[in-house]
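Students often ask why we bother encoding 3D structure as a string. The short answer is that it lets us treat folding as translation between two languages. Here is a chain of 174 residues written in the first language.
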Amino acid sequence: MLWLFDWLQSHYLDIKFLHVISVAMWSFSTAVAYRDYIVPTFLAVEKYPDDKERLARRNWAMERFDKGAVLEHIAFPIVLITGALMFWTGGWSLASWSWFAAKMLIVAGIFLPIEIVDYYISHFGGNKEKIRLSGNMERYASMMQFHWLFFRITAVFIVLFIPLSYYLAITKPF
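And here it is in the second language, the structure alphabet:
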């Protein structure tokens, strides 16, 4: 196992590069789609709930959003793995790096639970396209509303804590 540690330690900067690129991909890959497609289409359906064209546009946008979230959901495990490798090979400890401990609390307490739910509603039991193709339109409508509620709740956390995580990692303020 020492050989693995030595090898990983000699590639620390490569791991850090992969970590930073993956963090950027995870944190920004769905931002434009959310802002420019998801929010306007949901608001339009809320304003005109009987408009079948707006409803179809919202459904199309959400199904495409689920597919687009694949990049985000590939990047997040890479972030976790490379972060753990950097922690292990970099000689860090939570006791001596308070900025790092704060960042890990954000990752474990905010981002990880959000991502677990996000994986479910985008790719697994809550995937809107799979539900539509199954013909269960009641569940389809329910998952659309659940995903919209999820966005409304988590958007505040994402907007606050992604920049804070970047700040902590870059400035190491304490």
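Translate back mentally: The chain has a mean pLDDT of 95. Keep this in mind for the problem set.
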